[in-house]
Specification:
Layout: H1 12-30, H2 47-73, H3 81-108, H4 110-124, H5 129-150
Amino acid sequence: MKADNEVAAPSPQFACALLLAAIFFLWFATEIPKSALSGKHDPGPRALPILLSCLLLAGAAVELAQACIRRFSGRQTSPTSENRSGRNGQLLILIGGLVFYLAAIPQLGFYATTIVFAFLGSWWLGARWWSALLASLAMVAVVFLIFGMGFEVQL
């Protein structure tokens, strides 16, 4: 029996899905056109998406290797139906929260919606309420300083 705080072993199916998503993102990141304004040493607008796609690809490869090692060494146990139903419920809550977040941004604004979503997400994951509130406020403040003040992007 697994402890409540123990993380489940990665499955090969999840690792393959992650690998396909990484390849998908890398494919489209390379399709971003180079900027005419970028200079000789400027990586342009596609550099960050390509870098993040490569990091996701590397992480997916590690997950796949770990899943295959566990499977072939016989250390992987199959999850019980209780664990599967609990994960499905958590996934539905996450998807529902994301849908609410995206639907609420036009009405409440980016900052207010992000504070609420980050607070509820952190609290749901087990953080104390005051810690979740401070973290969500700090996160929105950093986003405001970087994008609102630094890049002058209206959010």
